[in-house]
Every structure is written in C-alpha cells, then in structure tokens.
Automatic annotation (TrEMBL), chain A:
Phylogenetic classification of the source organism: Eukaryota, Viridiplantae, Streptophyta, Embryophyta, Tracheophyta
Domain of life: Eukaryota
Name of this chain's protein: SAC3 family protein A isoform X1
Chain positions covered by the region annotation Disordered: 1-112, 128-159, 174-195, 254-310, 344-363, 513-537, 639-660
Ranges where the PCI domain occurs: 793-977
Gene (name only): LOC115751256
Positions with biased composition (Low complexity): 128-138
Biased amino acid composition, Basic and acidic residues: 19-29, 642-660
GO cellular-component term (any): nucleus
Biased composition (Polar residues): 31-74, 82-110, 143-159, 180-195, 296-305, 344-361
From TrEMBL, chain B:
Signal peptide: none
Gene that encodes it: LOC115740744
One GO location term (cellular component): transcription export complex 2
All copies of domain PCI, residue ranges: 216-402
GO BP: any one term: post-transcriptional tethering of RNA polymerase II gene DNA at nuclear periphery
Protein's name according to its UniProt entry: Enhanced ethylene response protein 5
Coiled-coil residues: none
A single MF term (Gene Ontology): RNA binding
SMART domains, alphabetized: PAM
Amino acid sequence: MMNQGGITETLAPPGTNSLEDRHVVDARHGQPSSYSSSTVGSEASSWTPHSVNNSFTGNGYSAGSTYGFEQQAQPPRRDDMNSATEASSLSLGSTSVPQDYNGYVTYQNPTNSYGYGTTGYTGYYSGYQQQSNHSYSQPAGAYQSTGSPYQPLSSFQNTGSYAAPPSYSNTYYSPGDYQTAGTYPNSSYGSQTWNDGNYANFSTYQYPNYPSTSSAYGSGNSAAASVQYQPQYKQWTDYYAQSEVNCAPGMENLSVASSSNPQCPTPGVPDGTQASNSQPPPTAVPSWRPEPVSSGLPSQQQPSVVASAGHDSYWKQHAAPGFQNYNSAAGHSAFYQPLDSKNAYGSYSDEQNSTSNQGPNLQYPVVHQVPQIHQASQQISPTLDPRRGSKVQIQTNPRIVSNLALGLTKTDKAGSGTTAVAKPAYIGVSLTKPNDKGLSSDASDPALKPATFPKSLRGYVERVLARCKDEEQIAASQAVLKELITSATADGTLYTQDWDAKPLFPLPDMDGLSNTFQSPSPLPTLRRSPGRRTKSRWEPLPEEKLVNKTPPLTAEPLKYGGYMNDRNRKPFVGNLESKDGLNTTSFLAVEQKTASFQKPFKRQRLSNSLTTADNGDASSDSDKESSLTAFYSGVMGFSNTPEERKKRESRSKRFEKGHGNRVEISHFKPKSAGSANLYTRRATAIVLSKTFEESGSKAVEDIDWDALTVRGTCQEIEKRYLRLTSAPDPATVRPEDVLEKALTMVQNSQKNYLYKCDQLKSIRQDLTVQRIRNKLTVKVYETHARLALEVGDLPEYNQCQSQLKTLYAEGIEGCHMEFSAYGLLCVILHSNNYRDLSSLMSRLSNDAKNDEAVKHALAVRRAVTSGNYVMFFGLYRTAPNLNSCLMDLFVDKMRYKAVNCMCRSYRPTVPVSYVAKVLGFAYASSVSGGSDEKDSDGLEECVDWLKAHGACLVADNNGEMQLDTKASCSSLYIPEPGDAVAHGDSSLAVNDFLARASS
Amino acid sequence: MAYLSMGEAHRRITDYLGRFSDAVSSQDVASLKHLLSLSSNSPSLLSLADALNLFQDANRLIKQSDKYSQFAEIVVPLFRCLQNYKLNNLVDAYHAYEKAANAFIQEFRNWDSAWALEALYVIAYEIRVLAERADRELSANGKSPEKLKAAGSYLMKVFGVLAGKGPKRVGALYVTCQLFKIYFKLGTVHLCRSVIRSIETARIFDFEEFPQRDKVTYMYYTGRLEVYNENFTAADQKLSYALAHCNPRSEENIRMILKYLIPVKLSIGILPQDWLLEKYNLVEYRNIVQALKRGDLQLLRSALEEHEDRFLRSGVYLVLEKLELQVYQRLLKKIYIIQKQKDPSKAHQMKLEVIIKALKWLEIDMDLDEVECIVAILIHKNLVKGYFAHKSKVVVLSKQDPFPKLTGKPVNA
C-alpha cells in the first residue's frame, strides 16, 4: 500500500518530468530498476511456476528444476517454452537482448532459435521466463503462467499494464504476495492462455507489468535511490547487470504500451522513470494513471493508491486490505487490474485464497511478474525504506535459497491453501532450487555484460523521444530506437557511429514497432537478474563483494559495460518504455536478485508481521525490525544449524536496519513533497543522480572521495553498532550535529559500558563513513578510550589510541598529553620493550615532558624498570586522569615482585601493616572500602592477598600479623587468576551481561 | 659544461656498453663493479650520463647489437637510472636502478660461480644508498618515504639467492649487513631475526669464513640487538668481538662500537678509562662513569638528563638508567667504609637514617620508605649482602664481602 501511495505521489511529478530527466535518472536508478525487473522476472517466473505449476508449472518446474540445476537449462526451458509457445516471445526478446547484453546472448540465442522471435511479445514473456529460466529452471512454469496472464492481459493490455505498475509496487510491499500461490494458480491459467496462443496479448501484458514494476521500483526506491543508490550502484555491479534486465522489462513495457496501450505505457513509463529517479511515488502514480485510462479501473486503483500514498501504509496496504480490494477489482476487471499493483496484490491474495478466477488468473500471471517486481522493489526498498526493513529481512533470508524455496512452497501452500497452491508449493520447491542454481549460472552471465552506450547515442534517443507527441509515438520511437541500437551493436557501429549527426528516423508506425520493442528487452533483464544471483548463494555476501569490487570495476569499461549499458539503456529503454519503469525496475531488480527466492517467504511473513510492524511508523525501530527479522529467520527455520541461523540473523538485521532507514527516507520525501513540489524534487533528484553517476563512472581512475563521501541524514541519536558490510547508507548515518548529541547522550548515560561502547562504536563508524575528522572525532575517541580504560577494555582502548595518534598528528586539538601519558604507560606496563620505550620517549616533545600526566607516566616507568614498589604505589596514589586505571593492570605484578624482594631482603619479619601500606592496599581499601578504611588500613585485604600468594604469616607477641620472610621466600607463587574468563576479559563478564539482558 | 657532440655521446655509450659486455663475458668483476657503482660519481659514469641525456636513443643502440641486447634488461634501466641520477631525480633513479638490480640478480642466479659477488655487493650498497636518498627526496616533497623498504625487500631477495649452499654463500653476510642497516634505519628491527637465524643456524658454513668486515658489521648490529633485549652478556660478547676485529684505523667504526659497548660494560661493572672516552669522543659517558666511581646519584641523574636525547636515540638510555642501583651500591659502600674507619665493630650495621642523610647531601630527597625499598632492592639484586631489619630500620651487612663486585656479570634480576 505504501508503495501505491508513493506511486500516486510520484504520478504527478512524472507527468511533468521530461523524458530526458527520466533518462538520466533512469540511468542510475534504472540500474536498480533493471535489477528489480530481472529479479522480478525471475521471481515472477519462479512464483508463477509455483502457482501455475499446480497445473502447468508443475511440468515447467520440473523442467525448470533440471534446468536450473544445469543453469543453462535454457534449452529445456525453451522446449517448455516452445511448447507453451512462449519460446517465440523469448526469441524476440533474445534477439534484442543479445545486442544489449552480451552475456545474455547465449540465452537469447536459444530463444531465437526457437524462432518465436516473430512473436516478439511473447518474447517478452519468454524473456522474463528466460531470465527466470536462466536463474531458475522455473521459467517454464513462469512462461506458462506469464503466458496465461498475457493473454488476458492482451484484452486488458493497456489498462492492465498500466495498472500493473501500481500493482507491482504493491507487490513489493506485500511479502504475502509471494504466497501468491494464488498467482501461481493464475500462472497456470496464464499458461493455458498461452496455449491459446495470444502472444501479442501476453507481450502487452507483460510489458505493462514490467513498466509497472519499474514504477513500483521508482516508488519504493525513488527516494532512497537518489541518495542510496549511488553507493549501491557501485556496490551492485551485479545489480547493474540485472539492471540491464530491467531495461528489458522496460522495453517490454514500451512494447506493451505501443502494442496495446501506447498511451498507457508511455505515461506510465515516463512516470515510472521519473519516480525511479528519485521518488518512487511518482512512478507509481504514472502507472496508476495509465490504468485508470485504460480500464477505468483506475479509479479504484487510484483510490487505493491514494490510500497508500501514505508511504507508511505501504506495507499495511499490501498486507491485505489493499490487496483484497485490488483483487476484487481485478476479479471483475481482472485483466486490467492485474496490471495494477493493487490488483495484482488483490489478485494474488485472491488467487491464493481462491485460485478460482481463471480470467483473473491470467492477470495474475502478470501479477506474478509484478510480485517479482515487488520483490525486487522490496529488495531495493530495504536499503531505502525502513519498512523495507522487514522486507530486507526477507531478502536476507533468500540467501538460503533452498530454505527459501521450501519456505516459499510452504507459504504458497498456506497462502493458496485453497486448491492449486499445495501442488504449486511442491513445484515451487523444486523450482526454487533450480532457480538457485539458475541464479548461480546467471551469475556467470554478468561477464557477458554489454558494452556501454555512448553518450551521443543517448542524446540521439532523447532527441527522438523529444519529438514524440504522445505515448504511442514514444513507444513506437522507442521500438525503432531499439532496433537501431541493436543493429548498431550487431555491426559494431554502436560506438563508431556519429549519433549526434545521425538524422532522426521518421516517426514509426506504432503498431509494428511495439512488438519488436517488447521482445528484446525482456530477455536481457531476465538473464541478468539470474546472473547476478549466481554470484553467490547468499546474496548479501555477493552484494557486499560487489560493492567492494564495483568501484574498481567502474574504471574498466568491460566490467562496467553492464553497468554502463544499464545506464545508457535505461535512457533508451526509458524513452522507449517511458524510462520510468526501467529505472525503478532496475533498483527493484537488484533487490529482487537477493530477495527473489526469499521474497516469497518473506513476503508472506512480512505481510503479516511487517504490516504490523511497519505500519506503525515509517521510522520503524531498528531494534524491532532486527528482532523481527531475527524472529522470522528463526521461525522460518531456514537455517539448518544454529550458527548459520545466527549468521543469517545478524546479516538480516544488518540489512533491515539499513532498509528501515532508507525506507523512512523515501517515504518521508514523498510525503513531504506536495504535488507541486514533486517537480522540483524530481529535478533535484535527477541532478543528484547525475552527479552520482558521474562520480561512479569516474571512480576508476581518479576517485573523488569528497564527492563520494556520505552525508548522513539520520536524525536518531541512538544507534546500535553494526559492522558495515556494504557501502554506507546515508539514511542510517547521522550527521555531525546529531553525532554530537549522541556523544553527549552517551557521556551522560547511566547505562553500562557495553551499551556505551556499542553507541560509541556506531558514532565512530558514522564519523568514519562521513570522513569527519575534527575535534568531535577526537572527542569521541577520547571518550571511548577513557571509558575503555575505566573498565579495562584494552583492545578497544588500543583502537582508540591508535586513531587518536593519527588524529593528533594531524594537528587536531584534544587531550594530547593525557593520551601520550596513556600511551607511555601502555608500553611500560605491557610490552616493556626497551626499544619501543626509548623510541617512544625520544619522540616526546619538551612540552610533553613537562606535562603533569606525562611526567607521572615517566615516573611510573622509572618505578617499574627499577622495581621501586614504594615509588610505584606512591605514584598510583597521585595518578592524574586515568593513569591509575592503566596502572591497575600492573598492580598485581608489582606487588608480587615487591613481596618477593621483601622476602629476600627483610629479616626476620615484616609487619603486614607495613606491607599493606607500601603496596597500596591501604589506599585501595580507602578508595573502595568506605567508612571502615581506618580500621583495616587494607590489612585484611593484604593478608588475603599474601595468603593467596603463598606467603607465610605469623602473629607476633602483640598479635600483629607479620610476614615471615624466610619461610615465605621459597613459598611464594602467583595464583591462578580466580576470575579468569575464557575470553580473557573478566571486566566484561557475566554480571554486565546479565545486567544488560535484564534491563 | 662543454659542448658534447652527438658523435661523442654515441661513442661514450657504445664504449660503456662494450665495457659492460666485456666485463661480463670475461667475468671481470673489478671493471664490472665500477660500471654499476652509481654513487662513486666516477667521471666516466657522469660523462656517460651526459651523453645519455643528449643521445636519447640509446635503447635502440642496445637493441641493435646482439652483443648488447642480451644485457638490455640490465642496461636499459641502468641508463635510465643514470639519466635521472644526473638530473638529481632520485626517486626515478631508484626505480630504474631497482629494475636493473632485479635483472642483474636474475642473471646472477644463473651463473654457476660466484665471480660477480663483488658486483652484487656494489648493487646491494647502491640500492640502499639510493633508496635513502630517494626517501629524503620523497619526504621533502611531503610524500611517504617507502623506497628504503622496497630496497629492503629487494635485498631480502638477494639474500635468498645467496643464502643457500655453495660458493655464493660468502656473500650472504654482506647482504645481511645491508639489511641490518635498512632495518635499523626503518626501526623494523624485528625483521632482523629471520636473517640472523639463517646465518647462525647454518652448520655447513663456518661463520669465520665470512669476510672480516662483514663479520664485524654483523657482530656490531647483533650486539646492538642484544642491548635492546637487555641481554648484556651476549651484547658484551658480540660487541667485544666487533671491537677486537675492527680495523683499528676506522676510528669512526670503533667509536660506534664503543658507543654501545661502554654502557654494556658499565652495566656489568666494568668502567672505561678516561682516555678511551677522550680518544673516541664519547665524553657523554664521562660523568656517568664518574658517578659510578663516586656513588654520586645526583651526578648520574644530571648526566642522564643532559644527554637524554642522545641516549634515547641510540637506545642506551634505559641501560644507563639501570646503573642507578650500582651507584647506590657505591654510596652504601662508601658509608660502610667510613663507618668502618670510625668503629669497625659496628660497621656492618648501617642505619637507614645515615643513608638518608647521605642522600640529602647529594640533594636527593627521599623518604624512609623509599630508601628502605632501595635497600631491599639492592639486597634482592645481590648488590648488597645482608638483610634489612624492619623494626630497627637497620641494614645488617654481611661481614664478608658485603658489596660484591659484578665482575663481568650483569646485575641479576
């Protein structure tokens, strides 16, 4: 629902936004969108298979499963596809795709061989399916399902497609959609329709769906996308590849628009692109608009959208009400509505609930795709939206593909409990596994990434699109453009051709073009998404890796190729399709990649739990989210072993947090932005995206770190520390002023060290991420170092000390002397290495040597090296700052040495009271003891200590305890530390932990 | 500079190439090492550098001839190094030299005999010196100096080539010494350990077979390491070896050895003659020696303070500081002698008050507990024989040799 809401908001902007803007945005966002699309495709396929499988997919799944395992199961899939007549569609898609995406080429080729190419529309589906196939063997199932949806869609095509975008957004939010077990049944229906052979229809349907998905992405991602995406892009090279896939979806959208509802697609698409650029809502809106136009259903959808407009409500809406509504709507105008996100959701739910409506089912297939998209969006969204947090969790779960698959099947069963669901569930299981494999195989595909498009070409596309008067023309132009680019790529003139000088082609005939367009795009998207998945089973990990790798990659044309293509294409695609969808879809796709498998589970769960949790507030409590995720992951039982589960939980938490923050941002933006403001926002978003793009592409040779530095936007003072595993998300990073408050909060906090340490670490992380190095940084490290010293947490202290060293060296003011003294003491008391010590001492400035704390530290050093225990404990008593904390660590050693020395040199006895005085027991007890210190003078403590160390004590005539030195001389020993803990840090032991747990 | 004709430049270059290839083919180290010795600033090399800067196409010259092209790997970067060296572009010169050195060691590896060891020595030396200069240039430009480290890893590679069995092993110690110099300069002394281990554990090769100069250098550095480790017996042995075998005419080297040997000897109770300190300009130790002789704690402290920086930099500060206990011992001994003169029967009982009074005369203010502690430590460390009676605050000295001399053994812990 949130998405929808977001969409509605975005709608207004999209309309205003120019295609170019979209293009730009798309380029960046488009990548994400492409991901989403690809993932969507795969997910959709997978899902559809599940649902569809009951009837059709069952077969398809089986085939798919095998394929998936083979990864290149494509041939089998193809067969399946062919049987379904989807192959034709695939072929079309493949042709276009290959040019765009080299990596995909192989897949595409097979599809081409099918010769279905003529049925370009089907190609779209096939493309999706292929994607899914690539990633998952499921495709076959997907095809069927998609096929069925397509046909129904054909009737509804335009409206449906437009509506679909919204539905996509919805799907994102509603994890439950995955359960779309209903969708699966639908898909089966769809497959039937396929049999009917309405390829054109299919294509149109699919296309709308794709655009819609893209729009959904835009809505979900948009806000986050602008900020977060930059990092993400880099990080997610794989995603980029997927983004290409998204482009394909975008293409599909375009084609759909052209073929069936040119108007709808164009409006929807542009909107979507816009939305994708920055604000998801806008994208959603466009999609919605088309829907109304096409089917009249729009009114329903729109309302729903409006309702959802409250981003916060996204999830909730998804959760059920929205869906149901949609479903009802879909049921009636099933085809149209399916296109709509809401409809899709509804249809899903309906399907799940009552997989009865075949007609709706057709739509459902579309919906399925949508769900996929949604998933993708969810994946994306996690980064963006807080709500996504829950989604994110799901995503993380996806890592465990097999588990997910199982979970999915289960969910499907449960969700679709009605009829086909159970079967699909089985199918789904098999499918999911194949998918995983397929994904892995796909991962290899990324290598095939197409080369990037030259800027001049982009400009050319923009010119072409600029002259289009209506959506039909745009769609047609896009189709022509697509052909042009494809052929140019084929002859290798893509880069050599002077696009700037190339005359614009006459406005093409709408009818013919639409088909061609559609076919090419889908395939690439599908393939890519799978490919990305292939990188790693555990998506989170791959993502991270990708992130790391991407920056270097950007420099390399080939690697970037995929990325670049996405960008370039996005513009193209975006133009063709209406840019909107692509961009957004790309983001979604990325997420989907990770989440696609997981999504089903997650979605279901999310729908339940997330809606509850997320609905509450946009700025969902990160802890809640994390706990939820943890709970989910645990409940789901994905993990086979406790350790694995833990790991997953932690990972999912990590993502949740990030997502949660992002979601918040995105939501806030849309909300805050009035319809009037949308334009300006979009514009800024575009600018932002441009800069991001540039910086990203620049990264290779000369990274402008200043431009890349994150500027945090998080306003929460409290934040738990989590080790970053990806590029930082500005939404989760606190700006300097907030960090200052956070520091004050920690300093005044009454909570225990563990809490403070955690908070300070997160502050340090935020500082590092934003490259803030000033007095505040020093203050934070000093605070942390002192706290660590107080509790004897030396590892943490050492970290701070080393940071402080460099910070001081940079000339930043702070308590330099105090920490020089600590540094000295550390070396003295711990390493006690001559060379280190003298080099450290030789580096002390005269100022330092005159400093009280440093003087004290130097004196301590002398006392230690000479073994002068009297001096040592005298200094202990007068220690400035926290010097005594460091000395504490040496006290026992010093005492033991002293007693040893006394035993050798004193005869016959030494009064224990003297020992207690000289060895600081009196002082220690007066510090800690309170009122009775005068009486004991630390005597008892000293006696205990001496006894514990094997000393021989006797009472003299006056009853005073004496240390019998001669007897003790040979009996002294160092006792085993009684409070030793396995982790070697007794200061952080059980008590603290329990206190923390109970608080 | 006089005008240099193109023909002359060409002649110089071909002349150098000819000499290089002749030296290699006839295994004539003496002339080969001169061709590699950059820092010698020999006129022939400098004029060659001029020629190279004029005649830019030396590479073609090398490649044209089969005779020269087999050394292209070495000579081409060497020429580039010479050019940069002449232009005082030391960082680039270092890079080129390292390349040439790598190519040379590659060749050297393939030569069965160790005939080119001398040339390798030159390279090892040159690369270190050049790296140091390049680092100076780098840090002057505000960049991080890292060339010396790179030179260190190159020399490590050379060491690997030499350290095996066979005739080339003789050269290992030279490279080791160059490595020591680098590591000590970089402050990464811990890296020395692996090299030392492979030198000292090799049974097949007697240490005495290494060249004298390398042995001295090696002993000097390992002796310094032992000082760092507070292993004074070993330090004394190694540094004494170095001193004994050092060429008596290299006074600077002797001084460097003494700089560490004197503190070591002091800490084992052996005091140097004053003339020695004079002769080798080690006067910073004079007051310390005086303090030890007199038991003048104040003098010791002021001497340490006066030369603190120097002592800290050379790393002997902490060694010298530990002499304090010996000064206390000396002080107590003096008191003991005075008491003995006054009243031999009670001489072995020394009141704490007396010690405190003596310290006061030295302008050192210490309270009872602290002095008691010092005395306890003295007894504990076996610098004083006897015991301390806490009740009466009296040090009861052994009647036999109450102040044992260290006589070459360090103060025991």
